[in-house]
Amino acid sequence: MSFPKEFLWGGATAANQLEGGFLEDGKGLTNADICTGGSKNVSRRITPVLEEGAYYPSHEAVDHYHRYKEDIALFAEMGFKVYRFSMEWARILPNGDDEKPNEKGLAFYDGIVDECRKYQIEPLVTIAHYDVPFALMKKYHGWLSYEMISLYERYCGILFRHFKGRVKRWLTFNEINCGTMPVGNILSLGILNEMERSTSFMEQKDNPAWRFQALHHQFVASARAVLLGHEIDPENKIGNMQIYSCSYPHTCHPDDILKNQAHNQMKNYFCSDIQSRGYYPSYSRRYFEENQIRLDIKEEDLEILKKGTVDFISFSYYMSSCQSADKKVLEGPGNMIRGIVNPYLEASEWGWQIDPKGLRYGLNDLYDRYQKPLMVVENGLGAADKIEENGEIRDDYRIEYLRQHILQMEEAIRDGVDLIGYTPWGCIDLVSASTGEMAKRYGFIFVEKYDDGTGNFARRRKKSFYWYQKVIRTNGKELV
Ligand code: BG6
What we know:
Elements: E1 8-12, H1 15-18, E2 45-46, H2 57-60, H3 64-78, E3 82-86, H4 89-92, H5 103-118, E4 122-128, H6 134-140, H7 147-162, E5 169-173, H8 184-187, E6 199-200, H9 208-232, E7 237-243, E8 246-249, H10 254-277, H11 283-290, H12 299-307, E9 312-316, E10 320-323, E11 346-347, E12 353-354, H13 356-370, E13 374-378, H14 396-414, E14 419-422, E15 445-447, E16 459-461, H15 463-473
Parallel strand pairs: 1-3, 1-14, 3-4, 4-5, 5-7, 7-9, 8-10, 9-13, 13-14
Antiparallel strand pairs: 2-6, 11-12, 15-16
Helix pairs in contact: 3-5, 7-9, 9-12, 13-14
The structure holds 6-O-phosphono-beta-D-glucopyranose.
C-alpha cells in the first residue's frame, strides 16, 4: 500500500506573503499590511498608522501579483496536481463590507484559477489566510464583533458563486487554532488592542476572553460557510485548517502526561473538535472556568455548528515539542504553538524541531479522532539558501526534510489513514509569517528578493525543484 493513484501532490502559499501589488487595482489595507519586517531575533512591529521609512514586507512580497503566470508555469513544470493559495478579502472587498466586489480583484483571481486549470492543476482556496481587512479591524474590532459572521458569509457567497465549477475545494480559515494564542490577536482575529501606537507582534496586549469570543465567531462563520458552499454547489468540498503541533510529555511522570493531555486538548483538538464534530468539547468548560472566560453563545449558533461540519480535515505540520508540569523547564522557539525542547531531536536554523515521525503520529491521531479524509496542507523547512557561483542552489537539507516526512506519510497510509494530499509550504520563496523576513526560505523556487528590500524578483529552480518533480512523477516511489 502506498500513495493512491489520485493523490494530490502540490504546494501552498498565502496572498499576503506572496502577492505584493499593495493597494493596486483597488485593493484595501489588511492586518498583514501594517506589520513591519523582523528577523529571527527582532520581533515584527504592528503599526496601526503606516510609518514613513518602515519596511512592510507584504507590500511587495515576491511580486506574484505581476508574475503569477510565470510562477504557475513553474508549478506545472514540477507536475503539481493541486495548488493551495488564498484569496485576499480586501482585494475583492477593499473595506470588507463594500456593496459591490472590486472587479479587478476578482479578475486577478480569475487569472490564477484559469492558469491553474490550463495545466490541470486543481485550485485549493484558503478563504482567509491570516487575512482581515483593516477597515473591519477599525470598525468592528475584528472578529470580536458578531457582525463579522455575516460579513464573512457574504464574502464567501461572492467567492462560491463567482468561482462555481472552477474551484471545488476550500479551506475556511488558515490555522484557526492560532486564535487560542496571543499572537492570534493580530494574525487571525484582527483584534488590535492598541490602536494608537506601534506594538510588538510577539508581545501583544491580550485579553483571552475576547480572543475566545472572537474565535467562537469564526467557528460559526466557518460552519455557515460550509452550509452556504454546499447549497451553492453540492460538489464543493470544504475543510478546516489548523496547526497540528505534535506534543509529547517531557517525562513519563503522570503530571507531565496530564499536562500534555491538557495541552493537546486546547491546542490541537479544540478547534477541529468543534469544526468536525459540531459542538464544544466537554474539556473546554473547565478551561474556560479556570481562565475566567465567559462566552456569549446564542442558541442558534449551536445549531449552526452542528449542521456546518467540515468535509475534510487539513493541517500544517512543521515540528514537535514537549510539555512539562515543571515550570523550571524552559520553552524553546517554534511555530505559533510552542513547547519544550526534545533532547532526541535536531532543530532548524530557526530552532523549530524536526520530527518526521510526529507527522505519522499526528495523521493517525487525527484520523482516529474524526474519520474524515486528511490533507497535509503545509510542511517544510525554513532555511537560509545560498546561490553558488555557478548559479545552483543545492538545498539538500530541504530535500532530506521533505523526504523523511513523505516516508512517514506513506507509513500513515499503510496504518490505514485516508490521506488525500500534500502541499508543502512556500513552494516558491515568500515572506515568513512569524518573522516577516525573506531569509527564511521554504521554496523549490528561489526568488531574488532580500530583506534590505533589494533584489530583482528573478526566479531560479533549486535542486529540490527537480527532486520534487521526480517525486510527483513517480507518485512518491522515488524519493532519492
Ligand atoms: C504557518 C502559516 O504558521 O506556517 C504560514 O500558515 C507560515 O503562513 C508558515 O508562513 C511558516 O511559518 P513562518 O513563520 O516560518 O513563515
